[in-house]
Design goal:
It is built from four helices and no strands. The chain is mainly alpha-helical. Helix 1 runs antiparallel to helix 2, helix 2 runs antiparallel to helix 3 and helix 2 runs parallel beside helix 4. The chain is elongated, with a radius of gyration of 17 Å.
Length: 128
């Protein structure tokens, strides 16, 4: 019988709730009305903080790679940082949006966050 590496299993399972949350996060953001702008911004900040933690953990794991893999992860991390900045910029715009600009601002953040999340998913798959 093969022995199960509990550390790897625990680390993998730790990502499952965060990934499940992120999978619907951009749709959740799109449901907020301008009257619920403060709640939407708070939710957006929570998403960005969670993603920051995930990126930091991925960066830690990627730093253990070597050679060509390390160069690829360095490139992936740069892309993630760029997309994270864009998501933060869109979140800031969403927080400042008035009624007339609300739909465009919230959809802009939701799309930027989805792009960030998709890039993160691709980087995680490469690490496996």
């Amino acid at each position: 019988m093969k022995r199960l590496n509990w550390g790897i299993l625990a680390a993998t399972l730790a990502f499952v709730p965060a990934l499940a949350l992120a999978a619907d996060a951009w749709d959740t953001v799109k449901t907020y009305t301008v009257e619920k702008k403060n709640e939407a911004v708070t939710y957006g900040k929570k998403l960005v903080r969670e993603t920051d933690r995930e990126i930091k953990e991925l960066d830690r794991k990627a730093s253990k790679a070597s050679g060509e893999a390390k160069a690829q992860f360095k490139s992936d991390m740069q892309e993630l940082k760029t997309k994270r900045k864009e998501a933060a910029r869109k979140l800031d715009e969403m927080g400042k949006a008035s009624g007339a600009a609300w739909e465009e601002a919230k959809n802009g953040f939701a799309d930027a966050y989805k792009d960030l999340h998709d890039s993160y998913e691709k980087a995680v798959k490469k690490l496996k």
